[in-house]
Amino acid sequence: MRSGTVAVLLGWLLVFLGAALLVPVAVSIYFKDGSYPFFILSSLITILLGVALAGLFRADREIGNREGFAVVALGWIAAAGLGALPFYLSGAVPSYLDAYFEAMSGFTTTGSTILREVEPLGPSLLFWRALTQWLGGMGIIVLSLAILPVLGIGGMQLFQAEMPGPTKDRLSPRIQDTARILWGVYVLLTLAETVLLRLGGMGLFDAVCHSFATMATGGFSTRTASVAAFHSAWVDGVVTVFMVLAGINFTLHHRWLTGHLRPVWRNEELRFYLGVGLAATAICTLVNVGSGTYADWGASFRYGAFQSWSILTTTGFGTADFDRWAPVCRLLLVTLMFLGGMAGSTGGGIKHVRVLLFWKFTRVQVRRLIHPRSVEVIKLDGRPVPDDVMKGVLGFLALYFAVFVAASLVVTWTGVDLVTGTTAVVATLNNIGPGLAGVGPLANFADLPALAKFVLVICMVGGRLELYTLAVLLVPGYWKGLRAPRFRWRRPPGPAEGGRRAAAP
C-alpha cells in the first residue's frame, strides 16, 4: 500500500472539512451566539493539518483498493476527530470523548447523542451538528470525487469503498460525473423539503437543519423533543415523505426525475422497501388503537407512520415515546432497525436488497431439499445474481451478526442493562439514533460508561462503512508491502538510476 498517496488524499479531505467548518461562522455572527472563534480555530487547525499532509508527500496518479479502503476509513475517523473540536473548544461538551461521540454520530448520520438538552448549544453549534449529518449522508468522500480529477487522481476505488450496498450503480462512465449527479439530486431534495417546511410555518433555520438531517437520514434536531416540539401535522407529514425518499436508492431518484419510470417501479428492492414500511405502519396503527395508546385512528396513524418510517430509514427523528408502545410495536421497531434503507440510499442498516437476496437464497435451499436435482438461479430484477455477489451478501450477514454479538457483550459487560445495551448497539451499528430503555427516544447516551461509548463509536463508523471497509484494516495481510511515503522535495529515481540500484548487491 502506498502510504504517501493515502496521506495526500487524507490531506485534501481535511482541507475540504476545514472549509466546511467556516460555514457555521456566518451563522454564529448572524445570531450573535459568540461561538465563531471556536469554528475559526478548528478550521485553521484542520486546514493546516490537511495542507501539511497534501504538501509534504507525493501521491501516485491512480490508487488501488487498499488505498481506497484506508482513505475512506481513516477519513471518517479523522473527520470526527477534528469535527469534534467546536463542541470541545466551546465548552459545550467538556469531555473530548463525548465530543468525538457527538461528531462521529453526526458524520455517520447515526443521530445518537450524549446531550441531555440541545437548545443551550446555540444556533451555530446546532447548525454544525446538522451540517455534519448532511455532509456524511452522501459522503464527504463522494463529494470530493467531483474534484479529485483536478488533482490528477482517479477516484473509482473511493466510490466503491464509500457507496453502501452490495452493488454499485454507475450513472455516468466517469466517476466524478456520477458523484455530481448524486449530489445534484441530494441538493434538490434538500431544497424541496426546506421550502415545504417553511410553508408549514417552520422558521428558516429550523427548516434548513431538519432538511439536512432528514435527507441524510441522520435525526439530529434543533430541539430536545425532536420533531414533536413543533406540534404540527404538516411538519410530521413533510418529514415522513422525505424520510421515505431519503431511504430510496438515489440512482432511482435520478431515473425518476429524468422520466425513466418503468425501471423505477420494476425495481424489486424498492417494492420490498415500500411494502415493509407500509406493513409496519399498518401494524403500529392497529395495535396502538387496540391497546389504547391513542384514542383515535388519526393520531395513531400519524405517529405510527412517522415512527415506522423514521426507524426503517434509520433517520431516528421522534414525535412519540415509542418506548411506551405495546411490546409488539417495540419489537417491530427493533426489527426495522436491522433492515435500514435501500442500497444506494443515505440510510444505514443491513439494506433491503441483502434481506431480499437472503430470502431468495433460503427459498432456493428449501426447494432443493424437496427437489434435489432441480437447478434454480437466484434473480433480482429479472437478472441472475452472480455467485460472488451472493457470497458477499452471506459473508456480510455473518460478519454483521458477529460484530453485533461481540459489541453487545462488551457494552453489557460494562454494567449496562440488557435492553439498553443491546438496543444501543443496534441503534449505533445501524446508524439509527435512539434505542430502548436507557437510550430510548426521550433518553440519551450521556450516562453510558466510557468503554461502552468507545465501542459504540466503532459501531457507528463500522455500520456507516458497512463493516468490510473497516474490517480489512484489521487483517495483517492488508499491511504487507506497505511503502514508506515519498516526500515532494525528493525526486523519484529515474529508470537508469533505479536499474543501477536494483542491480547493486
TrEMBL record:
Protein location: Cell inner membrane
UniProt cross-references to InterPro entries, sorted A to Z: Cat_transpt (IPR003445), TrkH (IPR004772)
Transmembrane segments: 38-57, 69-89, 134-159, 180-205, 225-252, 272-294, 331-350, 393-413, 454-479
Signal peptide: none
Keywords per UniProt: Cell inner membrane, Cell membrane, Ion transport, Membrane, Metal-binding, Potassium, Potassium transport, Transmembrane, Transmembrane helix, Transport
Membrane topology, record value: Multi-pass membrane protein
Top-level taxon of origin: Bacteria
Pfam families tied to this protein: TrkH
Cellular component terms (Gene Ontology): plasma membrane
An MF annotation (GO) of this entry: metal ion binding
Chief place of localization: membrane
Residues the record lists as binding K(+): T109, T110, G218, T314, T315, N431
Family membership noted in the UniProt record: Belongs to the TrkH potassium transport family.
Protein's name in the database: TrkH family potassium uptake protein
Lineage of the species this protein comes from: Bacteria, Deltaproteobacteria, Dissulfurirhabdaceae, Dissulfurirhabdus
